[in-house]
Write a structure and sequence with these properties.
Elements: E1 15-22, E2 25-30, E3 34-39, E4 53-59, E5 62-68, H1 69-72, E6 85-91, E7 94-100, E8 102-109, E9 114-115, E10 129-135, E11 138-143, H2 145-149, H3 155-161
Parallel strand pairs: 2-11, 5-7
Antiparallel strand pairs: 1-2, 1-8, 3-6, 4-5, 6-7, 9-10, 10-11
């Protein structure tokens, strides 16, 4: 069984992922989508924005919407501390920041380390999960960050930043 073949991250050797944590889970995204990693700073709130959009920041003259992934994925209540970081992404020609609990490392996936995400039916939304990677004792949820950030509900990011 292989991961979604229509995605940017097809299961071939040499895919580099940036891994990060949200709660007790570890996630991975395509390293080529990452522009930079920053500490969490205060954001400017946007009126009527969805809960998962924390606000915007001015990053060297670019207004960047900031998405809190813990809220987006309906995980535990977010807390912000010295380890909280913002991963600045460049997806679909847009710059977007995502708040995560911490960044782990950069890994290179071998072909046999990525498996398709299990089907959960309608109860769990796996549209944005490319697959599950296993490295030693670690289980990493590989996220199609471009698909997530350009999904219909995320179009609100563009409207909020406009």
């Amino acid at each position: 069984m292989t991961a979604n073949p229509s995605s940017d991250l097809s299961p071939h050797a040499g895919n580099e992922l940036l891994t990060f944590t949200l709660g007790s889970e570890e996630y991975g995204i395509d390293i080529l989508k990452v522009q930079e990693i920053r500490g969490y700073d205060a954001v400017t709130r946007i009126v009527n924005a969805p809960d998962f959009i924390k606000g915007v920041i001015n990053l060297r003259g670019v207004i960047v919407p900031i998405v809190d992934m813990r809220i987006k994925f309906r995980l535990s209540e977010p807390t912000y501390d010295a380890f909280t970081v913002v991963i600045i992404l460049n997806v679909a020609g847009r710059v977007v920041g995502m708040v995560v609990d911490g960044v782990s490392d950069v890994i290179t996936l071998a072909e046999d380390q990525l498996r398709a995400a299990p089907e959960f039916g309608a109860t769990v939304d796996t549209r944005f999960v490319l697959g599950l990677a296993t490295i030693d004792e670690r289980m990493i949820i590989v996220v199609d960050i471009e698909r997530l950030m350009t999904s219909e509900d995320m179009e609100l990011v563009e409207a909020a930043a406009a």
